[in-house]
Specification:
By secondary structure, the chain is α/β, with parallel strands linked by helices. The protein is built from 9 helices and 15 strands. 25% of the residues lie in helices and 25% in strands. Strand 2 (38-45), helix 2 and strand 3 form a beta-alpha-beta unit. Helix 6 runs parallel beside helix 9 (330-343). It starts with a strand and ends with a helix. It binds flavin-adenine dinucleotide.
Length: 345
């Protein structure tokens, strides 16, 4: 009989992030399919009552909390101590947590401490013949593997964005507080501040509906024999501002900076999509001035509806990589789209 514990940390405002609700959704799916199982939640943060209340109508039967100012910031030693204490109070056999950067670095460590096993980057959970199985992707998202484990405790890190967030409903939850004895050594690391790009410079938006991809064509010579990089910059930023899309890029375009060519200054390797880049999840994707070669499009595995604009009718997108290919000049199309977006905000 499994005891499933969802581990989550609260946000600075005391709420639960979408990734935590996704982990809860996965855990609730397991709980529903495993007869006799228990579903528990452990919350860590400055104050966890509001977060517990926000999911009080879920099938969770017990809430544990570790609270205090020491648990606001992400720090391996205090997060691991809190997670271990909650785990012991809950006597869990399976722990499900969102694979945020905070939990991803702690889960394997606690698993080791407790003689368990950890699986990271899990994108699916299921129960078959009474056994839990988890799935994840291998070889740059080309192959999906499903695995089961007999070892307990089993720590499962759910990739944010891969699940539906639990819309559990609010209420009033009773939280059992768990005491954690922290030594001075466990508080040695201090977060002195956060550096973030300005809101309008933040072009990577994992929660956006649309992924807008730019390719090297934006910086290439156009029909008039000239490059038009400042105009490309204006069009791309204009589109992003109005659509709130997330910005992705081909490798060729982000590499240009290193080759001393004209570049789009707001792009970095963090925007790169593909085999050696990211594999984001968005409902729709819109590619511009990109050829759609396999090492790039492999990063589109989790993009739903795909459209592309290229001047080349024989480009990769035309070979089954896109749902719709517009053989057109992206400068003209994006300019018109921006005009329409401005007229219909
Ligand atoms: C081991 C390995 C790993 C790789 N990993 C990645 C990766 O992770 N991500 C990645 O992206 N690539 C990766 N690549 C590189 C990849 O194979 C391609 O070289 C790269 O994606 C090409 O980028 P591009 O399509 O932007 O540029 P190009 O191939 O130069 O294509 C530009 C396109 O823009 C079009 N164009 C030009 N002007 C216009 C216009 N006005 N309107 C419309 N279209 C226009 C052209 O017709 C052309 O199709 C990898 C390669 C290798 C060998």
């Amino acid at each position: 009989m499994e005891t499933i514990l969802v581990l989550a940390h609260t946000e600075n405002d005391g709420s639960l992030a979408k990734s935590a609700r996704e982990a809860l959704h996965s855990a609730a799916t397991l709980h529903k399919s495993l007869a006799g199982s228990k579903l528990l939640v452990g919350l860590i943060g400055d104050n966890v009552q509001a977060a517990a209340n926000s999911i009080a109508a879920s099938p969770v039967t017990k809430y544990f909390g570790v609270t205090g100012t020491e648990f606001i910031q992400s720090r391996y030693a205090t997060d691991a101590a809190a997670a271990e204490a909650v785990f012991k109070a809950a006597q869990a056999t399976v722990v499900v947590a969102p694979a945020t950067s905070r939990w991803a670095r702690v889960l394997p460590g606690i698993a080791q401490r407790l003689g368990g096993r950890a699986d990271t980057h899990v994108t699916g959970v299921a129960v078959a013949d009474g056994k839990i199985s988890v799935s994840r992707w291998y070889y740059r998202q080309r192959m999906e593997g499903a695995l089961t484990r007999t070892q307990r405790p089993w720590f499962i890190g759910i990739d944010p964005g891969s699940q539906t967030a639990c819309d559990c409903g609010a209420g009033t939850a009773t939280v059992e507080m768990v005491a954690v004895n922290l030594t001075d050594a466990s508080k040695r690391t201090t977060v002195v501040g956060l550096r973030e790009p300005k809101a309008d410079a933040q072009t990577i938006r994992p929660d956006a509906q649309l992924l807008f991809v730019t390719g090297a064509g934006w910086t290439k010579k156009q029909a008039d024999g000239q490059t038009h990089v400042p105009e490309a910059e204006k069009l791309i930023l204009g589109f992003l501002k109005q659509s709130r899309a997330s910005l992705g890029s081909s490798k060729s375009l982000v590499d240009l900076g290193g080759e001393g060519q004209a570049v789009l200054p707001f792009l970095s390797h963090l925007n790169q999509i593909g085999q050696t880049g990211a594999t984001p999840r968005h409902a729709k994707g819109f590619s511009t001035c990109c050829h759609g070669e396999e090492p790039h499009t492999v990063g589109w595995r989790f993009i739903g509806e795909r459209r592309a604009i290229s001047l080349d009718p024989n480009c990769g997108w035309a070979r089954g990589k896109a749902d719709v290919l517009y053989v057109a000049d992206a400068f003209a199309v994006v300019s018109k789209v921006n005009e329409l977006l401005a007229a219909n905000p």
